Amino acid sequence: MYTHAHQFEPLMPSDARIEPLLAKAHDLSRFATTLAGTRVPPELRSLLRSMNSYYTNRIEGQHTRPHEIDQALRQDFSKDAMLAAKQRLAVAHIEAEQALEQRYSGPDGARALYTVEAVQDMHQELFGRLPPADLLTSENEPIAPGQLRTREVKVGQHVAPACASVPQFLARWASFYGNVRRGEAALVAMAAAHQRMGWIHPFIDGNGRVMRLHTHTLLSALGYTGGLWSPLRGFARSTERYYALLADADSLRRGDLDGRGNLSEQALIAWIDYVLDICLDQVTFMSGMLDFETMKARIEACLVFEATVVKQGVRQESLRGLHYLFLSGEDMARGDFKSMLGVSDRGATDALGALVKRGLLKSDSPQGKVRFGLPQHALRFLFPRLWPEAEADAATL
What we know:
Elements: H1 15-36, H2 42-59, H3 66-73, H4 81-103, H5 106-112, H6 116-127, E1 154-155, E2 158-159, H7 166-178, H8 183-200, H9 207-221, H10 231-236, H11 239-248, H12 265-289, H13 292-310, H14 319-328, H15 334-339, H16 345-357, E3 361-363, E4 370-372, H17 379-382, H18 388-395
Helix pairs in contact: 1-8, 1-12, 2-4, 3-4, 4-6, 5-9, 6-9, 7-8, 8-9, 8-12, 11-12, 13-14
C-alpha cells in the first residue's frame, strides 16, 4: 500500500516529452482566451451550468433528464424519492459550481485551488448542500462533506494510498502543481492534477465530481472559460475513454523507457493529451455556436417555428429586438423592446407577454426589464447540438 508521496511520481511529463503538450496547450490558451471575452446573455451561462451538472452526473451514471433539472431549479421535485435525490444532487452541483467560481477567481484563486483546504472545500460545497438522507454511498456508508477518508479503498485494480497518508499525498499534490506558473505548463499541470487527485482518492465518495469541479473551476480562475464552456461536456461524451485513460495512468512504470517515476509516464502523457484535446474541441464548438453572423438566422428560424407551429402569440417581428438583446447581453426596458417590434402598442404588449411565457424573454418582475431567454425547447434552433439530450427531452414534452 502506498504510504510515501514519491510513489505517485511523475507528476508532470519530463522536459524531453512535454513539448508537444505545451504546443497544444498554447493553442488552447489562445483560442480559449478569445472565446472567454465574448459578451453573451446571462441566461446562456445559467443554461450551461445546468448542462454541466447534467453531464458530470451522467458520467457517474446518476443523471436526470434535462427538464427534471429545470423543474428542480424551480423547487418542483419529483414524488419519486430516488429521482428527487438525483434532482437535489443536480441542483447542488449547479450552486456549488457558481459559488466556487466566485470564491476562486483570478490568479490568486487559481493558486488557492492547489491547497488541501480547497480540495476539502469543494467536497463540502457540493455535498454540504444535500440533506442527511442523500449522504450515503451505494453501500449505505455515510458521506461526511469535506472530510478526508478514514478507511482503505480499492478502485478497480488501483489500491489507493493508505488513509493515514492521504493528507501527505494531497499536500505534495498541492505544493507541486501550485508552483507550476507558466501559462502553457499550467494547463498541462491542470490535466495531470485531475488524474493524480483521482489516484489519491481523498474521499470515501464523490472523488470524480470533485476532480471535475476542480478542473472546471481552475480553467475559470485562469480566465479561459468566461462561463461559456467546460470540459465536462466533452468528458461525458467520451465516458469510456475518460475512465480508461484515467485508470491507465494509475499503472506502474513500464520498463526503462517509461520515465523515471513509480507510475507510467507514457500513460500520464496520453491522459494529458486527451484532456487538452477535449478542451480544444469544446472551445472550437462553442466558438462556432457564438458566431454572431449566423445567430440572427437561428433566432429567425425559432420565431418562424413559434409563430407557425406553436401558435402561442410569438411574432416574427420580435427578431430585431431579440437579436439586439443577444448581441448586447444586457437587460432592456419593456417599452424600448416593444418599440422595436413595429406594431401597435396592444400588439407589442401581447407579443412581449407571449415571449415571456415561452421563455424567449426573461424578466425578474412583471414590469421589470427584459433580457434574452434561452429555454430548453428553443435549443434546437438557437444552439443546435450544444445539449442534444435537452433537445430530445424538450421534443417529447
